[in-house]
Amino acid sequence: MLELIFINVCIFISFLYFAGMILRNSRKWSLPLLFGMGVFTGVLGLVLMNFTIPLTNNTIVDLRHLATVTAAVYVGWLPALLSAIIITSGRILMFGLSSQAVVAGIGMVAIGIICSFMTRLPFRNLTKLQMMNIVSLFVIFFVLLRNVGFYDTLKVFPSHLLTSLSVGFIAYFIAEQMRRSNAQYQKMEQNATKDFLTNLNNVRQFDVSYNEALQHAKERSEKLSFLLIDIDHFKSVNDTFGHQAGDDVLKELGKVLPRHSRPFDIVSRNGGEEFSILLLDCPHLHAMEIAERIRKAVEHHPFPIHTQQELFITVSIGVSTFPDTVFPDDEEIFEQADKALYLAKRTGRNKVCDFQMVQAIN
To answer: Could you tell me if residue 197 is inside a domain?
Structure first.
């Protein structure tokens, strides 16, 4: 018996580990992912059902209900219900249709429905898991009463209760460890690509996106426009109101720029007070219009700071486009936009300049 319990625990741990690997890069629960996890935990229940634990000569029990309980606690009501339906259907397909199978199937579906409703309970995961576990065991108790009789049920139920609660604790600790591990992994992954202050792409991710977008534009003969944006007189903000105010301005600008860009454009903070926007498949004239729209939006936007004041700032923007402004041939659009930004700064700030203006002056 102990050997079979150990096998069940190992199966549970293995499935939770693989579930954690599947969910490692998932930050949102999409409908296909919810269905997938319902199928996954349903298969777990079927596997557990094949490693039954004999408690008397004519009575066996298994831990299939814990697959549905775990799905309810850590994923939601839909996977829990789907898991219960899969386990019920699988049992009938594997062992045939009988009165006992019908009673066990009704009990399993009832467990899925009850656990689905209990997902809304405002308790920590351990409490919720064991509450669902206990409720499920009472459903199983009535199923055993119907299928094996009162005497055999009383003989096996205490052992089944103790085993299920013990494995429930193990399932909780493994699932929590996987959840914390995935959260840490996602945080580290985000820190590697996102700017900590604005939550925009950081300079490392900008380099990747820039090279990929430029290569994509070259291969598909598409236009790629690039805006290089710098806050005017940003040093005076820090000197007058403090560095906290400067951070407040940067955070707010990190919200303003995406709001006035197109949804699929790539907005980054390149460092300090410098930002950039990759305008995918965007001709030069349209890029100039977007840059001017952004310049006006920033100029008229109040920037709240921690002292309960509001500041008004301006930005200078350099614009370049592949292949419209690519001249000379060996100069990338980043260098072109940088020169255009320098021209905007040198000729008065709070303006939009492009590489053609740089060429006209030179």
So the answer is: no
Find the mean pLDDT for residues 352-356. 87
**Residue of 189, 212, 219, 273 marked active site:** 273
Contact yes or no for 108/84 (Cβ under 8 A): yes
Mean pLDDT estimate for the chain: 88
State the pTM of this model: 0.62
| 43 and 182 both lie in a single domain | yes
**DSSP letter string over 178-222?**
HHHHHHHHHHHHHHHHB-TTT-SB-HHHHHHHHHHHHHHHHHHT-
| Domain extent for 187 | 2-192
pLDDT tens-digit profile of 228-286? 999 999 999 999 999 999 999 999 999 999 999 999 999 999 989 999 999 999 999 99
Active site residue 222: no
Domain shared by 144 and 250, yes or no:
no
pLDDT tier, 330 (very low <50, low <70, confident <90, very high otherwise): very low
Whether 275 and 181 share a structural domain: no
CB atoms within 10 A of CB 310: 11
B/e letters for 253-281, b = 16+ CB within 10 Å, e = fewer, are: bbebbbebbeeebbbbbbeebbbbbbbbe
Examine residue 198 and state whether it is found in any structural domain, yes or no.
no
Please check whether residues 150 and 294 belong to one and the same domain: no
Residues 166 and 284 reside in one and the same domain = no
Which amino acid makes up residue 56?
Answer: T
The distance of Cα 77 from the centroid of its chain, to the nearest Å, equals 19
- Please indicate, yes or no, whether residues 129 and 157 belong to a single structural domain of this protein: yes
The encoded tokens of residue 169 equal: 């604790």
DSSP-based helix, strand, coil % in the chain, nearest 5? 65, 10, 20
- Same-domain check for residues 179 and 74: yes
